[in-house]
Please model this.
Amino acid sequence: MPAHTASELAITMAHVMLPRDGNPMGFVHGGVVAKYIDEAAAVVASRHSRCTVVTRSFDNLEFHNHVAIGNLLLLKTSLNMVGRTSMEIGVRVEEEELTSGRINHIASAYLTFVAVDDKGRPSQVPQALFQTPVELRRNKEAMARRQKRLAKHSHG
Model:
């Protein structure tokens, strides 16, 4: 299978935030946003690996702004790193105010997925090509995050 470029796998998912997604103040629950982040990242990992994938880690989700009911939630993904059986996907979350068109940065997160076979065992994934300066920077930063995660697990 030929290697994908990171840009070939990037997607943007959009969801209109409805009253069922929110709290009495008219803002979307953080857990709803987290669920959509996980789903968007899983799509990228699945498309790259062509396997079932499971979430291994969800790094540092910090909300910078809230999302209002009735606005559009945008999830912009990037494949940042590919290991032997794992992949890191970055997700930038934005809110588009549908009445004004204004975009607000809500959060960014990095998720690690592991490809698994039909018995649930880790499965090797194809390598990816990181070509643009942005892709190369993201890959380098993802490798550093991976080293920190591995060091944390080996000590803990």
